[in-house]
Amino acid sequence: MTPPQDAATNVAADSSQVGVQGIVHGDVHYYAVAPDAPAEKRFEIGARFLEGGAAGRALELIDEARALGYVTNKVCFHWLLALVSGRTRQELSAREAARLRDLDRSLTITGDDSWADGVRVVRRLLDAAGKTDADIRVLMKELDELRPTQRGMILRHMEVFLDGPLKDQMWRLVLQRACDDQLSHGRKDRVWKFFQPEPVLPRVRQPAPVAVPGATWVRAVAGTIVSVAATGHIGLLLAQNGQVPALLACVLGVAGACVAGRAGLEWRFRSGRRRAIDEAYAPGPPRRTSLPPDRLAKSVDRRFTYYLGKYVPYGMDRETWLTWTAGIRRRMRDEVADAYRDTGDKVEEFNWLIRHRAGRLRCQWERGTLWNYRRELATPPRVMAAAVFGTLACAAGGAWVAGEAVRAGGLVGIRSIALVVVAGWVAGRSWMLIALAHRHHAADQAETEKLEKDSEEAFARWKDRLRDKPDDGEMAIWLDCDRKVLLEQALRHYQLKMSDVVAHAFIEARSGSATRARVPGGPWRYRRYQLMIFLLTADGVRQWNAVLDFPEGTFDEPQRLNYRYEAVTTVRVRQEKSKARTFELSLMDGQKITAQMIGPEMEEPQQAEDSEAVSEVTLDAAGLRHTLHVLEGVAAEGKAWMTLDRRRGDTRRENRDHPPDGRPAP
Question: Whole-model pTM?
Answer without folding.
Answer: 0.80
